[in-house]
Amino acid sequence: MTTLIYSVRDSTTMLRRDIRHAMRYPMATFAGAMVPVVFLLLFAGVFGHALSAGIGMAVPPTGGYIDYLTPGILLMTACSAAEMTALNVSTDMTEGIIARFRTMAITRTSVLTGQVLGGLIRAMISAVLVVAVAVALGFRPTATVIEWVEAAAMFAFLAVAVSWLTVSFGLLAKTPAGANSLSLLVVVLPFISSAFVPTATMPAGVAWFASNQPFTPMIQTLRGLLTGTPIGNDALLALAWCAAISLFSYLWARNLYNRNRAA
Amino acid sequence: MSESPPLRPAIQRLTSTTDASLFGQSQPDSFEHRLARAIEVRGLRKSFGKTVVLDGLHLDVAEGSVFALLGPNGAGKTTAVRVLSTLLTPDGGEVRVGGYDVVRQADKVRSLIGVTGQFSAVDNLLTGTENLMLIAELHHLERRTARRKLADLLDRFELADAAGRTAAAYSGGMRRRLDLAMTLVGDPRVIFLDEPTGGLDPRSRRTMWQIVRELVASGITVLLTTQDLDEADHLAGRVAVLDHGRIVAEGTPDELKRRLPGGHAELCFADPEALGRAAAALDGSCRDSETLTLRVPTDGTPASLMELLGTLERRAVRPERVTVQGSDLGDVFLALTGNPQQETLA
Fold first, then answer.
1. Domain boundary among B258, B276, B306
2. What pLDDT score does B340 carry?
């Protein structure tokens, strides 16, 4: 029990450290939070017309392409925050302070947990910005209060899962630049999902991949909760994927953090 | 470059006495004995790939003492500290700190130790106060206790004025002091200082020495690594000379110095001819034709010097200049590591 209390305490201490880091360069942090908003503006304003014309059938009856698009951008928001987390972790590992943490009797992975929680907060703030701008552009969610809460929970699970994955990337890469390249995976993968266009409009092979990759059920769940499209078993599938990715990535990250480092 | 020969016989003598006095008569590991030892290392081995870094290291550090690991770059000093501070797992051997095994009881060891490494372990994005507070929180100190301790440390390490600035803006000396202050937040019983004054200017170095002395006065055990002979001489009660992952000598600085016979006189001549005649007249001398100097072993007493000069006078050779040097740890170091290149030494 005391182990658990100390573990929570150490992780919140590390979270405060992460927040202090973010506050030290407010402009960089703000710019990071704005990236998904830029994507939203690009897809809504630049590609939106052509895309919605091409996929006219799939647009929810209550709104335009913006209703279809926003849940997809929310997924990208989580991925974009996670990309930042990978960079933070990787930069952190090059600092001497990590060696000090390793020689202290503290919860071993608390520094990583702190980064994941910090990433979650950044993702949440960014998501609020995205929804606000989307509403200004014509996004009309149909969600009830409960559905909003469920959507927020879904978003949090997904942000945590992707963050643990990118924490592993950050630990795996030897340099921050390497971490950046690895986390491209989570930045590019949403494009091959139902984020921007329905999977049915894609060529057969791509469509199969897009329908079965983990991000699609997550987007479909968010979309269902916010705009009333059918969810089916996507919610269960999404939660299962989140749990699996979180567990696998946590263990991987812990293993990477604990391994001996030469030098 | 042929300056070492007169030291060679001494090396043999030295290494043999080391083996006998140090490891030959090592006491049985009684319980009482363990308590008195803050650090105990037996046959520690560590390799990175095919490179053997630590090759059967033995160390005993008594509680409340300062122990210096002296060695050139690449001797294995940092690796030894990293194993002792639970950052690296050893390939073989037994390593105990405060009686706890560094592998099986790593967390017990971590609660006893503090490490200040070669590369400063401070958070550059946080201010001095925030850095110290971070460590205090990780030690689960009560907030009021933490504040008092922080104020005290900032004061003691002359960081009060810079407490509100981010560590990135600190000078080398300030950063090192903050680093050590952070190490002390948790009241460690054993401190590892890996090259604590590397890269510091002379004044910061003196300050650091003073701090280390105060630590020891408060009963903390200190193991420091250094390539600076002067530093080992000034700070450490015992010195172990590390070379290629092995201890080649151990003792108090005085013991080590005493093991070398006296010092030497350096005679400088005007021309090679005089140098040649002087070399022929003096047994055990070592000539350097390039600088026209002759190095002659001597205990430095006036009588022996007069005899030395008398010998030369009788052969009608007169040196231009004579300098006499007592043996310092440098002589010991060179003799033991067989490394006449001084470039790795401060």
1. B258
2. 43
